[in-house]
Design goal:
By secondary structure, the chain is mainly beta. The protein contains three helices and 26 strands.
Length: about 375
C-alpha cells in the first residue's frame, strides 16, 4: 500500500482568553482556531491546537513498511464548521519543543478554569509546568499576545508547514505537508534527537501566523473534528510512498482502449485490522475479439497500462480515504496480472470501504466503479 494513516494519541485546543487561559479541552470532540474579543478594548485572544502521534506508530511505518523508499507525510484535519472567514487564510504547523498532557476536560465544563491537562498557560495540570516564555533553548521559540503561554515550538523553514486557502472552496479540510518534520522525528531513532538533526516527538502546534493572531481584526472561526469524534473524520497523519512494480511478461496484452472489464479476484470482503492484503484484478475486454482459437479468450492474462491507479472510499459516507494519486497509488503488474497491496491497519475498523480503479489510456481517463466492498474488523 502506498497510503498508510495513523491516528492521534492526543489532541486539544489552547485558549488565551482571560476567562479560559487555564481551561483544558482534551475531551472535546472539536478542535478550533478562533479569536475571541476582549470584554473591553480592541484586543483579540487567539486559540491554538496541539496534536501528537505515537512514536511507536511513526517508527513502525519508517522501519517496517517503507522498505527504504522515499516517503511523503501529510497532517490532515477534517473541517466541521467554519464561520466568518477572511477571503484569504493561512494556517501553519510547527513541531512542539515541550511535552504536554492531553487531559479530558471540555469547553462545556461548568468550571471554565478546569484543567487536568494542557491549557494556554500550563503544559499539564500542574501549575508548576508553565509553558516556557523565554530562554527557549536551541532552535525553539514561542509567541503570545497579552497572555503568557500558548506552547513552544521549533522554528525555521525546515520546521514549518503551511496551508494557504481561500474561504470560498467547498473543501476546507486542513492538509499540511509535514514530511521534513516527521523525518526529524524518525531521525531520533537512528541518531541524536537534538536540534537540528533530530527532534523529540512532542507533536505539532497548529496556529494562525503571528501577524494574524496579533491584529485587531477577527479572522473567523475554524473548527475541526478531534480524535474524540464519533464520526469517521478524526485527524490523521498519512504516509505516502510508491510501492508499485510494473513488469509485464513477454508478449503480454495491454488494454489501452475500448470497453474494459475489471473484477477483483478472490476478494474475501472481510479482513482483520492487523493484516496486509494483496488484491488481484482480472482484466479483459468486455467483449473479446472474435478469433478462431482452441482456448478461451477469458483465460488470457491481460493488463492495464502503467498509468493505472486505485482509490478507496468510505462506503457509508463516500469520503475519499485514498485518492487516485498518480504518484502513490499506481497499480502493479507481474506474470499473474495486475495487483495492489493494502495495510488494513491504516483504516478505521468496523467500517465498509469501496475500491475503485482508474486507467489513463488512449481513450482518455476511464473510471471503473464495480461496487467492490470490503470490511475491516478488529
Amino acid at each position: 500500500m502506498a497510503y498508510y494513516s495513523i491516528f492521534p494519541e492526543k489532541d486539544t485546543t489552547l485558549y488565551s482568553h482571560p476567562d479560559r487561559k487555564d481551561l483544558n479541552t482534551g475531551g472535546d470532540e472539536i478542535l478550533e482556531l478562533v479569536e475571541e474579543k476582549a470584554t473591553t478594548g480592541n484586543i483579540m485572544y487567539p486559540s491554538r491546537i496541539l496534536i501528537q502521534f505515537k512514536n511507536t506508530d511513526i517508527k513502525d511505518v519508517i522501519e517496517s513498511k517503507l522498505g527504504g523508499k522515499s516517503v511523503s507525510a501529510s497532517l490532515k484535519l477534517f473541517s466541521t464548521e467554519h464561520k466568518n472567514l477572511n477571503s484569504d487564510n493561512t494556517i501553519e504547523a510547527f513541531p512542539l519543543s515541550q511535552s504536554w498532557a492531553e487531559g479530558d476536560e471540555k469547553w462545556s465544563s461548568n468550571d471554565p478554569t478546569a484543567s487536568n491537562g494542557a491549557s494556554w498557560r500550563y503544559r499539564t495540570e500542574d501549575t508548576s509546568s508553565a509553558w516556557v516564555t523565554s530562554s527557549f533553548g536551541s532552535g525553539a521559540t514561542g509567541s503570545f499576545i497579552n497572555q503568557a503561554g500558548g506552547g513552544t515550538w521549533f522554528t525555521g523553514s525546515a520546521f514549518r508547514a503551511e496551508n494557504a486557502f481561500q474561504s470560498s472552496p467547498d473543501d476546507l479540510d486542513l492538509d499540511l505537508d509535514v514530511t521534513t518534520i516527521v523525518q526529524k522525528f524518525s531521525a531520533s531513532y537512528y541518531q541524536s534527537a537534538t536540534y537540528p538533526n533530530g527532534l523529540s516527538n512532542y507533536g505539532f502546534i497548529i496556529k494562525r501566523p503571528f501577524n494574524t493572531e496579533s491584529d485587531i481584526f477577527n479572522a473567523g472561526e475554524l473548527q475541526y473534528f478531534s480524535s474524540n469524534t464519533h464520526t469517521v473524520y478524526p485527524p490523521k497523519l498519512t504516509f505516502k510512498w510508491d510501492d508499485s512494480s510494473y513488469t509485464l511478461p513477454s508478449g503480454a496484452t495491454t488494454l489501452s482502449s475500448g470497453d474494459i472489464f475489471l473484477s477483483l479476484h478472490n476478494n474475501k470482503a472481510t479482513f482483520q485490522r492487523k493484516s496486509k492484503q494483496r488484491f488481484r484484478l482480472t482484466t479483459r475486454k468486455r467483449f473479446p475479439d472474435r478469433t478462431f482459437v482452441t482456448s478461451s479468450n477469458y483465460l488470457d492474462t491481460q493488463y492495464l497500462p502503467s498509468t493505472s491507479y486505485y482509490s478507496v472510499r468510505d462506503a457509508g459516507t463516500d469520503e475519499v480515504i485514498i485518492p487516485f494519486d498518480t504518484a502513490f497509488t499506481k497499480l502493479s503488474a507481474d506474470s499473474e496480472g495486475m495487483y495492489f497491496d493494502l495495510y488494513m491497519e491504516g483504516f478505521q475498523p468496523e467500517r465498509f470501504y469501496k475500491i475503485m480503479f482508474r486507467s489513463d489510456n488512449n481513450d482518455g481517463i476511464q473510471i471503473f466503479d464495480e461496487d467492490y466492498f470490503f470490511k475491516i474488523v478488529r
